[in-house]
Amino acid sequence: MATEDYDLLVATEAHPMKSVSPADYLVALQPAGAAALRRTVGGLTEVDAVLWAMEAQHIRVVTALADYSDQTLERVAEKELELMDALPEFLLEFRVVPSERVPAFLRAGYLVVLEQRTERTDAGETREDDDA
Amino acid sequence: MTTREQHLAQAKANKAFYEELLDRPEYHDWALTVLFYAALHYVDAFLYPSDPPDHSTRNKLISRSPTLRSLYRKYRRLQDRSQDARYECYDPTREELVKARQECYDVIESAILPHVTS
Questions:
Q1: What is the nearest CA distance from B84 to chain A, expressed in angstroms?
Q2: What is the mean pLDDT of residues A11-28?
Q3: Across A1-132, where does the E strand assignment appear?
Q4: What's the Rg (C-alpha) of chain B?
Q5: pLDDT digits (tens, 9 = 90+) for B71-116
Q6: What is the domain extent for residue A83?
Q7: How many domains does chain A have?
Q8: A83 lies in a domain?
């Protein structure tokens, strides 16, 4: 029996889309990469480092949805709660928009998280939908 | 600082205004925003004496409260849709407005009221 799930893709104007797991999500946000961050702010924990970098860069996050239904909005809200638990202070600004608005938000300096619909099997294999 | 009673009064006033706007299709976008802010004032009444200065801070406080956390999906949906109305020119139908009230606002109001009224 297959169940539906979502993968995360992260895009910035300077970087191509990068597929990440939710656990990698916050590290992937950093343009300089996690290793460079650790060098820069050595002595701080990784979480502190991400926080520091985000505050310094005023990173704003938007999630873009191809399926902009009420049900999907609520799923994203649940995911947002999980992220707040992992790193309570990271959300400087968090918005959800339809996917056609991505170019405008990239130009404005937002980091864009694209929700991509996948089909996940019990064996953990995933397949992207053709229209994702 | 705004008192709990003031937040409750503002929530009720916003809800009444939403009901009036339901019959004014030209202002249905604002009806959604008013409905969200009615819910927001119930949340602020619950959070009192905390006084969150912005949405981001408020949402974090919601996530840390077991009672409010269970309402976040509905609250955030109202917030998202009201932002759509203000920034993306989303123009909800009367049916969508009623659905937003029934599925989101009513759930939030009925869950919070027992905690904030004596």
A1: 8
A2: 42
A3: 3-11, 18-20, 61-65, 94-98, 111-120, 126-128
A4: 14
A5: 999 999 999 999 999 988 899 999 999 999 999 999 999 999 999 9
A6: 3-21+59-128
A7: 1
A8: yes
Q: Which helix (H) or strand (E) holds A30?
A: none
Distance, in angstroms, between B96 CA and closest chain A CA?
A: 11
Residues 70-99 of B with CB under 8 A from A: 72-77, 80-81, 83, 88
Flag whether A70 is in a domain.
Answer: yes
Q: Is A106 within a domain? A: yes
Find chain A residues with C-beta within 8 A of B60's C-beta.
Answer: 84, 88-89, 91
Which of A80, A93, A101 faces B76 most closely, judged by CB atoms? Answer: A80
* CATH class as words, domain B4-116: mainly alpha
Give the residue extent of every domain in chain B.
Answer: 4-116
Q: Please give the interface size between A and B, counted as residue pairs whose CB atoms are below 8 Å apart.
A: 46
User: Residue B101: exposed, middle, or buried by beta-carbon count in 10 A (0-12, 13-18, 19+)?
Assistant: buried
Q: Is residue A95 in a domain?
A: yes
Contact B60 A88 (CB under 8 A): yes
